[in-house]
Amino acid sequence: MVRRTKAEAEATRTAILDAAERLFEARGVSRTSLQHIAAEAGVTRGAVYHHFADKAQLFDAMMKRVKLPIEQARAALEACPGHEPLVRLRTLLCDTLRRVADDAQTQRVFEIALHKVETVDELSSVRTRHREAVAEHIATIARCLEHADLPAQDAIAVHALVVGLMQTWLLDRGSFDLVAVGTDAVDALLDGLAGRVNAPAG
């Protein structure tokens, strides 16, 4: 038996993930089987199982290939003292919107995550992993807001704003300028949150 090199194994894994992205976007996650993915990638079903235990693990790996700016800078965000985190958070949220607007792979992955994960029992583990990622994202924003002396619960509003903008834009990508409209919306929300805290007691 010929042993595959590490580079060959990685190339196979990448081909499987690329195939999954294409099929999940075209067919939806529930209507795409591992056999479909194997055929699209030009590999055996056994090769898929060699790299991924199930569809949920494959979905998770696909999501992790796209690192948004706020995820990449999580440690730096949480370490920033004083009000600097609010400025940094604004930059990262706007960079995230720009990344979605400009990068085709990021668009595909978020199109799948936001619009192609059907509510069926088969995908319960996929939805669980998705919920965990959302919770982690909200927790990161919350810690950043706390460093800026803002209520942690406001992280839900910040997260909902950005995800809502992305979801609406992905439904009709020509309907508005995601970066311009999104930047204005992020500024308005963060300014409003900061102003509410700093407003004199009346």
UniProtKB/TrEMBL annotation:
GO terms for molecular function: DNA-binding transcription factor activity; transcription cis-regulatory region binding. Residues 10-70 form the HTH tetR-type domain. PROSITE patterns: HTH_TETR_1, HTH_TETR_2. It comes from the Bacteria. Residues 33-52 bind DNA. SUPFAM superfamilies: Homeodomain-like (SSF46689), Tetracyclin repressor-like, C-terminal domain (SSF48498). The keyword Nuclease does not apply. Keywords: DNA-binding, Repressor, Transcription, Transcription regulation. This is TetR family transcriptional regulator. It comes from Rubrivivax albus.
